[in-house]
Structures
1.
Amino acid sequence: MTDIQTTPTTAADPTVAAGTAQFLTPVALGFQALAVNGKQAHWNVRGANFIAIHELLDSVVDHAQAGADEAAERIVALGLPIDARLGTVAEKTKATAVPAGFTQWQDIIRAVIADMDAVIADLQAAIDGLDEVDLTSQDIAIALKQSIEKDRWFLVAHLAE
């Protein structure tokens, strides 16, 4: 008779998975919101620096989508689902500062920075909380924070005088 071995769906302790999800879910949802609202800003930016800001916002959106994917996939890799549907994102994230219509580039930048700051706050909470839960997930949060802070710097540089 052949012994059949099964492989668990995850190597993570359920407590580790739940703790990680507690900290990375707001990060994933925040990045999803930033991607949607960043695209809104991208389409409606106006003014003398239009093309530079328009293209930079594409990069911010790409990085936000990648950040959401990284955080969500870590949760799923640990064996838990994530709900990042638009309704959930709208319900569980801070309201955007990005306006609905055409907006001058300086105001668009300030609005996107405000949205980024909300994600950065969630990332810092994840970094602090994951220190006692899962260091691998903490490393992911640290890398995501480094990336979004670089994008933030690029936007802030446009406002410097």
Note: The CA atoms of residues 60 and 151 lie 6 Å apart.
2.
Amino acid sequence: GLLDITDNIVKGAVVPPVNVVRHDEDDPYLVVGADKGTAAFSDYANAVSADYGFWLGDAVASGGSVGYDHKKMGITARGAWESVKRHFRALGVDTQSTPFTVAGIGDMSGDVFGNGMLLSEHIQLVAAFDHRHIFIDPTPDTGKSFAERQRLFNLPRSSWDDYEKALISRGGGVYPRSAKSIALSPEARAALGIEAEELAPLELLRAILLAPVDLLYNGGIGTYIKATYESHAQVGDKASDAFRVNGDELRCKVVAEGGNLGATQNGRIEFARRNASTGGHAGGRIYTDAIDNSAGVDCSDHEVNIKVLLDRVVEAGDLTLKQRNDLLASMTDEVGLLVLSDNYYQSQALDVATHRPLYLLDGQQRLIQWLERTGRLNRAIEFLPSDDEFAKRRAAKQGLTAPEGAVLLAYSKMSVYDELLASNLPDDPFFSRALKAYFPKVLSEKFAAQIAAHPLKREIIATFVTNTVLNRTGATFVNFIATEAGATAADVIRAFTIAREVFDLEALWDQIDALDMRVDAKLQLTLLSELVAVAQRASRWLLRLRSHAGQSGDDLPTVIARYQPAAREMRANLKAWLPASAYDSWQQAARKLVDAGVAEALAHSLTALTYIIPALDLVDLSQKAGAGLEPTARAYFGVEESLGLAGWRTEINRLPTDTLWQTQARGSARDDVYSIASQIT
């Protein structure tokens, strides 16, 4: 078996398998994951692991009898639902309070479909199919249909045929896929947007896929969507050839992929660009299966790393096996929340990237070119645009779609992770907070010392830091700044971390997140984008003037302690220190946000950043002059007012920012203005 050719860890040392000639480096990490129909086999795999004395023990196969049951948690569906909620927020719809129509692939006995169709009481499931039946409910009663779906979910081995027929709306029904033909009522035809009064089952499946609903939710097995220019043979799913549809034929607003491979990547891109005059989500709203259903794998990763930790506690005699198992079970809810936060922020990163489709296009192209040059990416295999295609999109004012952005984000994360792991960043005591944040609070409180000695701590830190930074800043942030500054990924991450702490950006990000469904989604994305711009500007300053953000000898806490108090002092005293004209400009900018629904305190904090960022310069200026921060800041702002530099900045801010390079040029010009003020001060 696999364990016969896998390295083991015995008493802290890697032990190669016997009678095996190794040509690779030490690699004792091996886990297996269940697929449909094999979820009950986890205990078998873990028993084999125990027989071999494998170091991961019952962490080899997650989700067993002593682990996190994905179906009971509904974790994969809940992760996909984070994508669903974000898609609909962009459309101005709250799925948790507003009825919306759904067509689905799957049945209520399944994990992803069954759990998914219970995540909102406002779902109007008008049609669905699995390998046995076709379900049509043209005008469902949301309350009654939700209760019936709940009953079917709890009924062992249920099928659509178990659905209480009296609860199906007029003109609907449940039909076997083995039928020769199915007569369709006027109500069913209206719900599906078709005219045919009778269809063969496979034709009806195609009609369901093309239904004019709000959401097409895939919780089944099969590839149902391809691109117009792809053949069925290229798809590689013969069972669905007879009813597969093209991306540009879909009439739904949103596609969610709870199941794997529900669409080809080209099919996703075609749907996302459907009738689009610009990039992003001007067409249909869709991410990828890897984005939508990542929660299951994410949950398994948490289980493995938690078990690795607790098994060492058990070995030390500080926990019994029963106590370990009880502790695992008690953390189920918190593990679920940790996982879902990844889904929330990863989908957010994609929406921020597609919010201004041309803004990042140059940076995305350069990142792809860099990934190819360094042997990390073959863009043709991943269906990413060629340089010629980039030129065409730029001319047509079209950006990358969300599915393309999802692939680029994944490659960017893998690249940054590799670079961080090869650096000394995971060994920096400052980033031990990432290790602590990864685990449930009860573990970080009770077993802090054991967490610090976790055998996979470097990998966990590199993964957590990569995710948190790139989910906030996007795929191009690290590469763009590193290329510009001649810095490493670790340098950029350190600089970003300092900027985030100095200007309390995480608190501002959290407050913007809390604006979900409270302000227009486009405004929310604009605010998120502007914080990234602040982080970029501060990171560039730190890399340029602080010798790669602390690499000259200052550790992160020292650098943060140098600048953070000044930034906070300026924020607290801005009203008193700003000249009248600058103060009026600040208030006008804040008022615009307040009028758009942003809380007054947050509006003032966000618009104040323009005036607070000079704190990076003012700290050094005040120390050189032997003066306090207040007189230095007043002098600085006085110079700005006397020379009319605020007007210069206003004119600079009117420069185009359609591309990242235009934005960079504008930023450099703005930096020059700040530099003039600093030098004169």
Note: The CA atoms of residues 255 and 569 lie 47 Å apart.
3.
Amino acid sequence: MKWLLSRIVMAGALATLVISVHAQTRPVQNFDTSAGQVKITPIYHATLLIQAGGKNIYVDPAKPASFTGLPPADLILVTDIHGDHVDQDQSSIKTISKAGTEIWAPAAVQKFVTTAAVISNGQTKKWDKWTIEAVPMYNMTRGPEAGKYFHDKGRGNGYVLAYGGQRFYISGDTEAIPEMKALKNIDVAFVCMNLPYTMPAEEAADAVKAFHPKIVIPYHYRGQPSGDVNAFKQKLEGTGIEVRLLEWYPKAS
């Protein structure tokens, strides 16, 4: 019996250690604001966690993202219907939800995530100490065939989140659209890239030059040649924009 109890205790300690190490190895980013610190954790591909003022906001929770060691959500923001942004069976949403978790999403997502409140391009809402604006994300030239696009205009949302005088932009799946280039006063931008669905690194860099955030973090690149984050960073050299390259695709251990 003592041997069994000892093994159980050891197994529990090992599990705790694994969770702790996994959580510690995530490249957490900290940003100071007038309302306190904002902490942003990249999780996987398009999935990230934003924390401030004791609240937890998840963006695009979807498989195969792991939420081990991470807190439950107070708010979930979804950008689009595709499986790398939301699970059709909502399994990731269920994993991180608790009583009172709110979900905001475009109408196309609300059709199957029926508990979501709809937020559409051009709408701005207040939540806790945050101001959250849904902005356009779409394709202008790329699609599965002539006359069709991977992301139709108005279907999905990018988001601009403001907290304590700082503005954070989440691009969602988009090309270098005019609405992105016209953004103002962005402190931190998360900008997508990969082909054929969004845009190559060079196009993403040109868009970033246009709206000139203080810091840009490429995401949604999958390690493809079209998502060459080093080429992206090189193209922004000399602009005064800080480029942070984070690990969005942790290796299985």
Note: The domain at 27-243 is CATH 3.60.15.10 (Metallo-beta-lactamase; Chain A).
4.
Amino acid sequence: MMLNMTMTGMDSDRPPVLLAHGLFGSGRNLGGLARRLGESRRVISVDMRNHGDSFHDPDHGYAALAGDLAQVIAAQGGRADVLGHSMGGKAAMMLALTQPDLVRRLVVMDIAPFAYGHSQSGLIDAMEAVDLAGLRLRSEADARLAEHVADPGVRAFLLQSLDLKADPPRWKFNLPALRDQMPRLVGWPEAPKGGFTGPALFLAGADSDYCRAPQAEAIREYFPQAEIRVIPGTGHWLHADRPAEVAEAVAAFLD
């Protein structure tokens, strides 16, 4: 099955750029980047499997996610620049390492080829605990989610994927699969070190813990041509914290 995708931007002799979002996101999360990059090329924004309007599947490992991206690229002509954030960044790395002929340039935002020790299962618990019956307004959904998630920014992010038009309302995520696959999501599978020798830009949030010294070492082991750039004043969602600066850095690298 093919991922749900949105094509934007303009026709160009440059390769298209494929955007892959992070956990609990959707293709529209990278909309600011899509608009900036679309000024000079075609942009493909996808909903990753078990997210958005894409298909649900019990397998949420990175080999499967990379295969989904490969299918999209092949359908568009066979080669692309690829950008991924967080979970999408790991999928993009796996694609570049295992099918390097499909990737011209790689951009990874605030993630590394590294097995992290944290889990996001608490957010799955929170979403599953919300009584969705009778919900019609997003403000009402936010109030119910606030009983389980204190951070309003995190709530707003999650609520982008609550389908209030469905009867009854539903989360667009495949929450059971994401819960089951969480160890694989935060982990990192076997992959060929140095399998991608093309240009690679890793953008790290200065206030994030995802790309510190151990992770930077792992990046250089897998991607010998990697440039690691820290964006001041940003956390894990660096494209939301400093959208213009991140977009310009990506555009300059891809051009």
Note: The chain has two domains: 5-116+187-254, 121-179.
